[in-house]
Every structure is written in C-alpha cells, then in structure tokens.
Amino acid sequence: MEAWEWVTSIIIVYSLIVVGLGYLAWRRFRHTVEDFFLLSRRVGFIVLFLTLAATYHSAFAFLTSVAVFSKSGISFWVAASIWTPLAAVSGYVLGRRFHLIGKARGHITPADLLADFYESEALRIITALLMATFVIAYMVVQSLGLGIVLSVGSGGHISLAWASFFFLLVTIFYLVVGGNRAAFWTDALQGVWMYIGVWAAGLFIVYKFFPGGVSELMHDVRAVNPKLLTMNWPIELATSFIIVYSVGVILLPHMWLRYYSARDKTTLRLSTAGMALYVSSYYIPAALIGLAAAVFNAHGLVVNGHQILEPGYIGKLVSTYGSRDAVMAYMIYTLTPAVFAGFLLAGAASAAMSTLDSLLGATSMILTRDIWQRYVRPKASEWELIQVGRLWIIIWGLIAWYFTIQKPGLIFDLVALSASGGLQFLIPVLRAVFPTRTEWITKQGAIWGVLAGITVNVLLCNKFPFHSALGLPAYHAAIAGVIGLIVNAIVALVISPFTKPVSREKLELYREILASEE
Amino acid sequence: MGEKGEQGLRVIKNIHGWLALILFLIYILLDYLLFFSKTLNSPAPTVDGLSRAFAYSLAVWVYGMIVIIYAAVKAWK
Fold first, then answer.
1. Of A280, A313, A281, which is closest to residue A296 (Cα–Cα)?
2. Domain A3-516 listed as CATH 1.20.1730.10
3. B74 CA to chain A: closest CA distance, Å?
4. Nearest Cα to Cα of residue A361 among A134, A192, A132, A45
5. Element spanning A307, H or E
6. CB nearest A276 (choices: B28, B42, B65)
7. Mind listing the pLDDT tens digit for each residue in B24-63?
8. Is residue B58 part of a domain?
9. Please, are residues A416 and A128 in contact by the beta-carbon 8 Å criterion?
10. What is the complex's ipTM, to 2 decimals?
C-alpha cells in the first residue's frame, strides 16, 4: 500500500471506532430528553474533564495553533497561556453556578437560565437564535479542519469538500444514534488521543529534523526571523484574544451544557484543574511544530538528497486550502512514517470531531427545547422531541458543510467570530449567577444590552461586509467582540435604572439555591 | 451578628479562595510584563537555547499551574 492509503485507512478505521462508541452510547440511552442532551446530569470526573478539555480544544488547537505559531511565533503561546487557564477558571466560577441553578430549576439550555431569571420569553428567543447562529462559524471551523485532515492525509486524492462531508456524516451518525452521551464518550477517547498525538508529533518532528533538539530549533528560528521568539502582538489585540477565547468560548452553548451535566461540585472542581493543565500544556508541542514549520518554510527541507519540503510551501497550502491551517496536517503527512501519520492525523480528526459533535448536540438542544417545544409544539411527546433534535443535528451539519466548501479563511479568526457572539451574554449571565440585591441589570437592560452588543460586534467585524457599506472602521472579530461587550454593558447599565427590576422573589430564590451549596 | 460581621466571616472562611484569586491575578500580570519590558521580551538565547521571552513565559506558566492546583485542592471546596 502507498503512504496515502495507509494514512487514509487508519483515519477511516478510527472513524469506525467512534461510530461504535456511538452505538454503545445508544444502548445506554434512557429515551428521555434530559438523558439525550444532559446524560441525566450524572457525568463523572474522567468523562467531564476529558469532554471539557476536548470540546474546548478543537481544530483550533490542533491545526490553527500551529499555523499561527508558524506566522506569529510565540505570541500565540504567551496569550494562550493566559486564556487557557482563564477559560478553566471562568468555567469553574460560572459553570459551578450554572450547575447548581440548572439542577435546582431543571434548566437544559442557556436560554432556560436567562429566561427563568429575567422572566422573559423575549430573552429566551434572542438567546436561542443568537447562540444557534453564532455557533455556525464554530461548526464550520471543525468541518473545515476535518476536511483538511482527510484531504491532506489522502495525499490530495480526496477533495476538501468530500473529506469534510465524510466526517460530517460520521459525526452526525453517532450523534443522531447516541445523543450527547455519544458525544461525551467519544470526547473522552478523543481527548486522550489528540493529546498524545500532538506531543508525539512535536517530539518526533523536533528530534528527527533538529538533532540538537529544542536548542537547535530555537537557533534556526532565531536565524530565520528572531521576532518569532518574542511577543509581537499589540496589547489590545492580545487582550481581545484573551477575553474572547476564555470567557466568550465558555459562554457558547456547547461548553455551557457540559456544566449542567456534571454529577456534583467536586467533579466540577477537579475537572476544572485538569482542564487548565491539559489545554495550556497542549500548546507547548504545538509551538515547537509551528516554529519548525517556519524554519522549513524559509529554507525548505532536504533529507538524504531529497527535497521533502520546498521553501515557501506554506504559500502553496494557502492557495489550495484557503488558509495556512493545513500546515500541521501537511507536516505530519510529509515528515512522519505513514502508519504513525495515520494515528497522528486521526488525533487531529479527534480534536475537530469532539467539538463538532458537541456543537451540533448543543445547537440541536437549543432549537428543540427553546423554539420547537416552547413555540411550535408545546405538547410534543419525549419521542417527538428526540426525533426533532436529531433532525436539527442533520440540518445544522449540512449548513456547516455548505460554508466549509466556501473556504472561509483562517480557523483562528472564525473561532474569534463565534466566541465574540457568546461574549455578549456575559452581562446578563453575571447578573443571573451573582444575584446580589443591588438592582444593576433589569430584563430590559439585559435584552437591549445584548442586542446592542451583537449589532456593534457584527457592524465592526472585518468578516462581515457591513463596515465598508457604512463607512465604519473594521476590526478583527476578537476586537469587535470586546467593543461590542463594552457597548453592551453601557446600554444595559443606562437602561436598567429606568425599567422594572428583576422580581425580589426570583432574586431570593436564586440566592437560596446558591447559598444552599456553600 | 450584623450583615458586615457575616460578610467578614465569609471572607475568613474562604481565605484560600481569596489568596488563590490574588495569586492568579499576579500570574496574569506577570505574563503581561512581556508587553512592557524590552529586557524580558527578547529573542536572545538563555542557557537552554530558548529565547528569553519564551523561557520567561514558560516559567510564569508553571507558576500559574501551581496556583490552579492550589485553588483546586484548597480553595474550591
């Protein structure tokens, strides 16, 4: 067999394994909505820790981190070493409260919590629709990543479009069959696989092609471009990344629902610490691979008289895949033995699939619970709701695939776009989970704040065309998201003193729920 | 006991939590030093070949992880 056949076969075998796990999850399925989406709120430490880590880390971690390291150097590490622990900590601070309130009040979706606290159906609809819309960019990221992995792994024999379609079918299949239990279980497998994969790839590439190890790599990077070894992002850009990739991502529904599903507080506590260690240390080998990619891009790579990588090879990848995200997959495919490459690329697929399944599961949950059950068929049976949930998984998967084949750009930017939408819910969420007696945000304040924040975010984001039509400045999605959050907070704080506050009974109820566990 | 007294008791009871929070904020500030210090944010090699900026950031990260573990063990009970 040729190298590409080995690699492709291993990736496909890996896909069959996760489908098998989906089947096993189906056998444990209790045929209730709560079990389909939240596993009956009984997820223990190992699965919760790995699903949090694997869901947080996606094609973003495995593919785009290496791509960004190869362009911006250790700037990515410096910022990521803040945003990853911050994501874990904010996940604990907010997630513990989501867990306690959700368990006491029977919440299943993010909109359940906000609509319940503010007693507002309008806020429910706004939350559900905005979250379902903004996560599309995140789904596209995973679908794109999966397409890159299989397309590169097949030596270009499978196009990006068909490669991503194949993986979408696999993910949709096990999710439709096994519900979110399948997503959690496969996340546990994928979390282990991708972590081993990135460390194995990093150590192999560095010690095989730089005999002096890390020290030689650093020497070569210094000779190619010493700026790659310093922090060279502007402070406002780095700070925006830190805010968006930590708090913004945690507020997206696929992360939020994981906090609902935890068994208890101890599980959450240990999972948070595990997540912080896992997600941040993951970027150390990614940095080494990215810096090696930059050296090879400058000089090329010749082994035993054969040109393995040409100088400027990253430029060619950009023209084929629409961004430099394929660097990691291409280096693994080109520089490692075929069987090893198959395992490593299956690890890359794990990273993307474990987030795609979570996103599809969470979006399906939102649309089923907050829209279908609430406004279309209030008397729908549990069976009907599960079938509707499955249908949403298929529809949203196909939407993601449509945008994937448009080659929408760098994964790093798409994740920022998605997380900037999640960030706009920070103000109403803080008010709900810290129910102080000070009346600082009301229902109207929350609604108009979110709408204003989202509007500013979309108008200023360089991924949308509106800024040029209106003559507005354009910013990276992360910066636009933070500006949106500032406007959001101002609008909420200005409107709130003039509108009806949250009911005293609801405040006291939430305070009691939170106090009962302290 | 008045409300202020109860608040004071809560702070004492959660002393590890406040300490962990302060140590975590110091972690973030230490990382941000790279934006302001040209001495630290340098590509010059350290003894192990890493750039000064990278070595500094890795050392700060190790400190941050110790803080997280401390918080998980002592503060978030």
1. A313
2. yes
3. 11
4. A132
5. strand A306-309
6. B65
7. 999 999 999 999 999 999 999 997 889 999 999 999 999 9
8. yes
9. no
10. 0.89
